[in-house]
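Intended use. Records like the one below are meant for learning the mapping from a protein sequence to its folded structure. Do not use them to infer anything beyond what is encoded.
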Amino acid sequence: MWPLSDSDLLLERPPSAPHPHPRFVDFFRQFGTERKTYEILIDCFRLRCEDDYAWGSHNHGIYGNDPPLPVFRDFLARAKTAGLLPNWWNEEGQRECERVAMEDDHFNIKFAVDKPDIQEYYSDNMMPMKLRMAAENVYGGGALSRSGKKVLHVDRNAYYGGEDAGFSLQDAEKWIAAVKAGGSAVFSDAAAVTTVDAATSPQPLLSPSRAYTLSLNPQIVYAQSRFLPALVSSQIHSQLEFQAVGSWWMHRDGKLQKIPGTREDLFNDDSLSVRDKRSLMKFLRYVLQEDDTQNDGPAEAPAPSLLADALETRFKVPVALQAPIVALALSAQSAATTDLSYATTRIRRHMRSVGYFGPGFGAVLAKYGGNAEISQVACRAQAVGGGVYLLGTGLKAIHTPSTTSQESAEPSSLTKVELSDGTEIQARWLDETLDQIKKVWATILGDEAESQAFMRFEQREPDDESSL
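Structure written out for the chain above:
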């Protein structure tokens, strides 16, 4: 048993109360039983300790050398001061919560908890995010902010990632229904197609819904890409696990066919004739030729500019071998409609990336969730850094200032924004996604929304580092 006294239940000088968002005022009060409230508080605390350790190098609680109980008491004191604890909370309730936190086999503040365990226990894929957001409302904005700027990130969706999100099977069905109801300005059509009759199948066709992640925008990260240094400089790479992508396959004639991904693979492919290998090597030499004047841009393309025409007329590559080349370029179009410079730029990046991470591969994939996982980790880093993240909250109205001086932060030069829950805020900078631009500005400008929005917010073309 650990030492416990009534004087230890609360800090002698409770911290000043943060200003929790109204949505989280009742977060710890909604779980019915007292036991469930204890569990939520403990998991919220454990995830916060993990985030502080991972992002701020703060070794306290679970990750510190000192006993974790005083740190947990501080967490409870802050939650009480902020008015977040249930009305029934008293000294007896706190003692019981501390007892569970120190003695329970599963909910124990001496041990870390993994995100998948939380998702499985609460049957809610979004519960880790909810717990982390609740912790932000307990501790307030934060000592870990690196840039000193106050950031509010709102997302009208109930999930991370926007157009790059990843879903379980059940969540994917909900997303499909939302798209059909006009809930997306980016996706115009979505459907779930079943080709096997589950009623007549002798065995279950699928594992549980959460065993799958369906990505809206599956991508890989090449070694020779500008996105990779961004992952490292932002320090979020240490919170991700990556899977090497070294083998390339295409579906043809009802079976999978391996594609030579390197020059060595090409030489060792016995299915190719010597003439075919010579033609393909000629094309690869062209792809890899340096162009010092364009900083790794596409080599000057000869006429004709379509990939199929160039392969046939200049490089003498048979039609049967054009599909694997298109696959290496990760083009969704056929060789007959794929631009030559588009294909050569992508194949060049692929070839130059091979061997950078290790022998035999040149790209990686976020292991468990692709782009959606990267988005979640980035949002988590922002929250730990002092930012505030609100899911399920959109922009209802935008009132532009009469002056737009970048030198002044006076209220008259700030943009006023009304959120969908009625909250009004002022911001010096407003950064919006394409989906949000179309929806919000349509309510302000009508049919001219898209053109006006692009005039007001400079849109950057995607740098095309990786796509599928």
